[in-house]
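SAMPLE LOG
Freezer: B-3
Tube label: C17
Construct: single chain, 391 aa
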Amino acid sequence: MHIRVRLFHWGSLESGIVYQGLQRDGIPLTSHVFAGSESNVRWLLKSVADDPPAVLIADNVVPALLAGRYLQKGGIPTIGILRSDDAFYHAVIERFVSGTPEDRLTAVVCVSEFLTEVVQSKSIDALEVVHIPSGTPIPDRTAAAPTDILKLIYVGRLVQEQKRIIETTHALHRVVSELPNTSATLFGDGPDHDDVKKLLASMSSPVELAGRLDSDGLHERLLQSHVIVLLSDYEGTPTAVMEAMACGVVPVCLRIRSGIPELVTHNETGLLVDDRGDGFVNTIRRLQTEAGLWQRLSANARKRVEEGFSFERSAGKWECLLRKLSARSHRTGRITIPSRLKLATPHPAFAQEDKRAAGVLEESLGRLRRAISRARMFGGRLKRNLFNRTR
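STRUCTURE (predicted):
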């Protein structure tokens, strides 16, 4: 199976984590800086026209989703991936799952059972819907049981939207302030990093803000920890929680509808909380005081990931899907790129990745508005000049 990557990016290509990973693994790629949607789609179509793929994995990349209608006309199946329970991915469902037939994907991979059920409820017969979690490696070692200090960690983006990083920081501060023999560390980076730093400083908090780690460094820190905390408003199937559970780190997560219920069965593979306040603090207290609780949850957490969320298991499901779609592929050997692209209707949730050029009507109206504005300014100056002359 031959893999080629078309990589859209903002800013510096070489500094991107995805680019670095692809280079390390020797996977060939061609890149393009995000521009207007027509330009993005045209570049993608031209880049595969000479040697069309058997299957295109559009993932969650808007230009690739928009290009799907032209690829499918050439007999190339397209796959989208739903990674979270948020407005962006529900917009993907609206436009490319249950939208106009020419824009519909051939298959959708959902990382959680909840998202799978949402897509299946659309009852689109021709659509292939598969539940495949992102997957995680299973290390040889596991975290050791706490002896003196119960070590809590957060791993992920430092962002208020979705992750509720400010409330999470407050929750960790309460734990280390109220419960003796606990520590907490925040790993990651993001747009709200400075706000978190200021908050910790204002509280003189012992919670550590440790920055971002590479995969090897993160793996070692997980093995030195005891509890991973995730108090998000919504998720897909969170990779950080899977990685931690594979290391035997016990998850304590907010009870949400997507992803978490598959990983964390309360009192079996981790602990679920209903708030970021007293309920969370009392749950951490249980792990400190209830004999044998951490050890039982740790063993069960690792077993859950081994049996259902390993890289090998996810890769096997992906291989089955790709072989199935490849067998159904009826490539014509030609991708037609019209002089004027017709793309799916814009959606507000795609605003960052879907920049449309103004149409002829919009451009004409814009010119008219600018002309009227200039005429008013000229009229105002003329009026003032005439008034001054008659004084």
